[in-house]
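Re-running the complex after MR caught last week's input typo. The corrected sequence lines follow. Everything else is unchanged.
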Amino acid sequence: MALRVGVVGGGQLARMMIGPAVELGVELRVLAEEPGMSAALAATAVGDYRDADTVLAFARDVDVLTFDHEHVPQDVLAALLEAGVAVHPGPGALAVAQDKLVMRTRMAELGMPQPDWAAVTDAEELQAFLDDHGGRAVVKTPRGGYDGKGVRVVSAATEADDWFAALAEDARGGALLVEELVDFSRELAQQVARRPSGEVAVYPVVETVQRDGVCAEVLAPAPHGSERLRAVAADIGVAIAEGLAVTGMLAVELFETTDERLLVNELAMRPHNSGHWTQDGAVTSQFEQHLRAVLDLPLGRPEPTAAWSVMVNVLGGPAEQPLDARFAAAMADQPDAKVHTYGKAPRPGRKVGHINVSGDDLDDVAYRARAAASFFQD
Amino acid sequence: MALRVGVVGGGQLARMMIGPAVELGVELRVLAEEPGMSAALAATAVGDYRDADTVLAFARDVDVLTFDHEHVPQDVLAALLEAGVAVHPGPGALAVAQDKLVMRTRMAELGMPQPDWAAVTDAEELQAFLDDHGGRAVVKTPRGGYDGKGVRVVSAATEADDWFAALAEDARGGALLVEELVDFSRELAQQVARRPSGEVAVYPVVETVQRDGVCAEVLAPAPHGSERLRAVAADIGVAIAEGLAVTGMLAVELFETTDERLLVNELAMRPHNSGHWTQDGAVTSQFEQHLRAVLDLPLGRPEPTAAWSVMVNVLGGPAEQPLDARFAAAMADQPDAKVHTYGKAPRPGRKVGHINVSGDDLDDVAYRARAAASFFQD
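Corrected-run output:
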């Protein structure tokens, strides 16, 4: 009988587990939010992941439960554990990914390098932080904040008045997170896989290029990375994976500062956009690795198979232009390009797929990946 | 709307199209022979591929029809064309893969190098061939003959008496195929993809190692292959693909003789065991390429991504030993090994999966692939 992995969430991350699951002989079962989602092929249930009964019923027929996203509420996770379900990553690790204040607190406890930060409950506390940090800072709502939402650069405490007002009305109380505005030269991401029995596999640190607050492309490994940089990034990734007992894939988003320090920016406890290059550029893709890790199977080698890989996200253009013709044009122009699609209707700015290209020369690889992706831009 | 490819047959070749179809955004629909087959995840119908109504009903909801095997009868194929279904490869090409006498005749017409052969209808004709070829020859039933069945080495015409008797009772009449026993040094396979509009993509020729009449492993590219050998093999592959107007993947099994000639042994018009290495060792896997080709999309680059790739078939051991534990042991021992499973219950001698390993050193790559596979031997 095949091992059965249940995935809560029917998005593109669950979709991209389908191929590796088929090859590994793993039966993938997906609890999708609605019909017709990216991972519809593997969907065995449709329902609300915030409803404990729905998730418990879904979990009854799987050996391990994992996630397409980190949004399953803690009370649902607790009910799963109570019912004896193997949940990976576990509630303790997920809690850190669900709340940026918890994350900053835990990073501090683990001694991880990170921007100066504070929990602020009113404008006065925020102003004090601003005064101490050159008059500008980043304010974040601890929960939510996906893809640039819930994040605001402020230079006066009054600019967060609406969020403080919302806090005051929130029965759970709480605080906002304020962080120093880091003078970074670029953004990096470090991925680590960890299985419950402890084995870890460390991917090379990569450079992530953001445009309009969204990941636009990934260069793997990070160019101009010194031996020291790679080792420090790997150490941070392993320390967090072990310190939080993460099971499955972990992505640590990092700032590289102009004075050559690495600071922890965000965490994701699942396959991550920064690791899509591994589908075509590493011995073991992050999607296969995640399945192996949550099943507590021996991990695969994370090493790259080419000197360089570049991933370029494909953002949807106007909905009236079908993707098919664009893909054909991209394929004709770049026969090396690996096209990955998410089965989503195109909409301006929406990630609908990505392109991977690997090879010996970074400039050439990046050129070809961008050329293939350009067929999707308007 | 996604492009829809229908696959007749629910075996492992259809199964291995699932991952590439998901990534390309192609909707794969499979007509399986029965429930629970290798490609069950993509099965949208279960039925008999020899029944025209069944196949026609299945074909109604797809853009292109293709195959997991070459056994769909010509009358069913004709009914599909009549109904306006796009069938790739087409009936004319499939006819050559379905009948070894037709194949030998067409190869002769195309001027392809092949063993001496004859169509023989009785023992007298067979004896004449034996007398002309050193007293031994290979006799084959033109239809069937998969994996060593329907093939017999004889040194006296009487050894085929039962087949001649069966022929005499067959209303369709016909003949047996007799071929000279080729003094070959090894077996090779050349894969070519061709799309309806004419573009071809040529994979490097590989060495296939048979054990007990079944493919045991594949070394890619073929070691010790001279520039000339590779070019001749490629030319043969392209000439056959174009000469027969094959659409999709074509595999040409070749004998390399001790006097350094290449002779056509068999043809397969679908993804083929000799190309499983491409899943992890080529820019474009044969499964993705087959989908692109039958959809008449631009073909992907067929070049290897590593110096060497070795594929070792996994044959099922006793049914009472579950595969899961074996896979875990293989993964732990060989973290580079790419494990591919077919979702089949293990049975002695049954192909239930394969292992791919790629790298710089052939001996090392072959050692690791065999080591991983050894966990499945008894």
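None of the earlier attempt is carried over here. Chain A touches chain B through 42 residues (CB under 8 Å). The two ends of chain A are 48 Å apart (CA to CA).
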